[in-house]
Amino acid sequence: xxxxxxxxxxxxxxxxxxxxxxxxxxxxxxxxxxxxxxxxxxxxxxxxxxxxxxxxxxxxxxxxxxxxxxxxxxxxxxxxxxxxxxxxxxxxxxxxxxxxxxxxxxxxxxxxxxxxxxxxxxxxxxxxxxxxxxxxxxxxxxxxxxxxxxxxxxxxxxxxxxxxxxxxxxxxxxxxxxxxxxxxxxxxxxxxxxxxxxxx
Length: 200
Known about the structure:
The protein has helices spanning 2-25, 27-33, 37-40, 44-59, 62-68, 75-98, 100-126, 133-147, 158-180, 184-199. By secondary structure, the chain is mainly alpha-helical.
């Protein structure tokens, strides 16, 4: 169970970050070409915080499943109530400060705290947890990949800039993930793709 727990966590962490990275790199271009984009652009950090919340949720998603199929399933209701309580408190705290961005940050913080509590509970009851050194490497690789876009120059054209920055970030991400072998499943998928292409 622990081996599966860790595998699902690292795989979903990497996949969710790729999706988030693609969205975040292209968000300025999206707002630029969107009708009334200057209005929606004010919610840019809503996308950031909700994206981070989804990454946290993806990396820890097996918590709820383990709980639901265990003899401690009845604790799930308590944790959902806790999540609702934390969400209300966080919204009351951060919305007056940051408005809509505060609501998004409150959501991120609530999901983070909720999942930390769930991880702690599973760790206490089953002596397992989803993280390892591979998780740290995955986070560092992800940060490095997206960090590159901030040092790459802009071309002056939103579409061209988005396309080349996305391509470079994805190449760096994939190369580092494959070379470090932090996900055997993703490496196997990549190897199979290469085999199919070599046979064409």
